[in-house]
């Protein structure tokens, strides 16, 4: 007779993974689609919320230009609507960051055990403040960069910045440094699950330093070296801190593994001794008869 288990719909069955948590290509693509769909839902809800704070946020983004002695102008009929959409999307990315950061981590490191799933929440708890901190850091340095560029204008001239060019530049700048601040916590997270050892990080430290300097130079172009170093400095510090955390975690993991191997050898040695002693205990009564 067929049981209730046999009548379970195929669509409700969980996807089967191997012992290491790996999935087939088809299952991997389905996983990516589902996590992308969840991220898009969160982004859509955050974007809707962005329309309600549009006026306040746009004034906040334009404030550094006015403080530097310039002004922002709309040069097309559709510019206000286009700018409203971009600002709302920017708010959506910020507001939905806990969701898409978690989905990104869960996709990169699938098949975690129950005790390892807490690491995912720890990753999000560390990644979200760093992402927002990177955005805030870029906004704090922005007035210095704008003041430098506007100061290059000739005397008796007005600085009228096209909003369609200014706003995308500012949004890219803020997001670039927000994402750059995620690199250290991503390094630590991958190290904790055994994917990225500290030796590999130290082996390629020159490339990492070069990339950090390159990102800082691209986000703060021009001859203002102070702005570039002000942006690159926190990135270097967080990279060094992440490398140290990975190093100590590797030492802790190696020590724990060595202790486990020693315990296994002790148990194996005890088992061999028991097998050797076993015949003597059996033969003893025979010799007395």
Your description of this structure?
Belongs to the TatC family. It is a multi-pass membrane protein. It is found in: Cell membrane; Membrane. Keywords: Cell membrane, Membrane, Protein transport, Translocation, Transmembrane, Transmembrane helix, Transport. This is Sec-independent protein translocase protein TatC. This protein is an all-alpha fold. The protein has one domain. It has ten helices and two strands. A two-stranded parallel sheet has the order 1-2. The N and C termini lie far apart (60 Å). The C terminus is likely disordered.
Which tags fit this structure?
translocation, 289 residues, 77% helix, elongated, two-stranded parallel ribbon
The overall number of domains is 1
Chain oligomer state:
single chain
Indicate the radius of gyration in whole angstroms.
29 Å
Indicate the mean pLDDT.
76
Unreliable residue stretches: 8-16, 273-278, 280-289
Query: Going across the major beta sheet, what is the strand order?
Result: 1-2
> End-to-end span in angstroms?
60 Å
- SSE string: HHEHHHEHHHHH
Count the E strands: 2
Task: Output the number of helix runs.
Answer: 10
Q: Which class of secondary structure composition applies to the elements? A: mainly alpha
What gross morphology would you assign? elongated
Transmembrane segments: 40-63, 83-109, 121-146, 166-193, 205-222, 228-248
Family: Belongs to the TatC family.
Pfam families: TatC
Protein name: Sec-independent protein translocase protein TatC
